Amino acid sequence: MWTYEKRLQFPVKITKTCPKTAQLIISQYGGPDGELSASLRYLSQRYTMPVKAVGGLLTDIGTEELAHMEIICAMVYQLTRHLTIEEAKAGGFDAYYIDHTAALWPQAAAGVPFTALEFQSKGDAIADLTEDLAAEQKARTVYDNLLRMIDDPEVREPLKFLRTREIVHFQRFGEALEKTKDKLDQKNYYFYNPEFDKQMINRA
Amino acid sequence: MNLQHLSIASVPIQPWGATYDGPQALKRGTIFQDLDMPFFAADDPGAPNACCETSGSSDPQQQERETMMLQICQISFIADDLRLYLDTHPQDAQAMDMLKNNLAQRKQLLQNFAQKFYPLTMDCMADADPMNANAGCYCWQEGPMPWEGACV
Asked: What is the reported pTM?
């Protein structure tokens, strides 16, 4: 069950139309390391996690990622809501405009549509948590790259906030991995799959 | 367990450390000073941090709404960050005390906002003030949508 709270986690108030910036930022909506991909990754992986607290963490981080998706979408929306045809043409937003006008659609910066192939739910806690650590790093890199390209402080502030969240989430997934390791054979972490070979798990 | 092993990733468990207050935490993206690791190209010396301030609107009602909304964002963000910390540190009494105190403040702020303006959550629909012109009706659709950028 989810409930909606009618506010953004981080305020977004962008006053200057810029379709070029929107086209770059949209990658964090529907791109390979975007927030939609992140939330679906964590919310898919959580069901079979062998450590209950790790399933709980995946739920909470997956939920926060949904709020981040909303921040990104709000930014794209505010960057394009007063868009003119001339601005769309000059900003390279014309191809997107033809298919979606100024509506939100999950795609990467280069126009590749969102796909579930961007993330995994592997059914092995070590494999999945290692993917989650990498996912946070890849998303951080996207925010680094965006911060190098975008000058508008009204756009940069939410990007900086979101970048820090990736670092915090990395730390939490690292701690979740340590918790999972506690349940495994300390001499050989790969002796069995804790998500599948449940009878083997160290319940001590 | 924090020993290093071959062929598996290790991340140290975060010890409790210095925290930012609500306004600073929201600006920095975390309450934990130890996890605040900025990117060199993100430095904006002297740039206005307009996102975390009210617009200075001349309309007192808009000014009050923005001030309250910003407080709700700041207080709620502390809870967001503490909750993730407690997910991996469930025995940390200091963090738990901080969260309880924070949630009590958040509840009060949400209630005040619903009474003065409109409800932000379904639970707050019960708090809407019947004397308020916006209330006494199905008020869930009152107020701007969050993505309009109208409130802060």
From this structure: 0.96
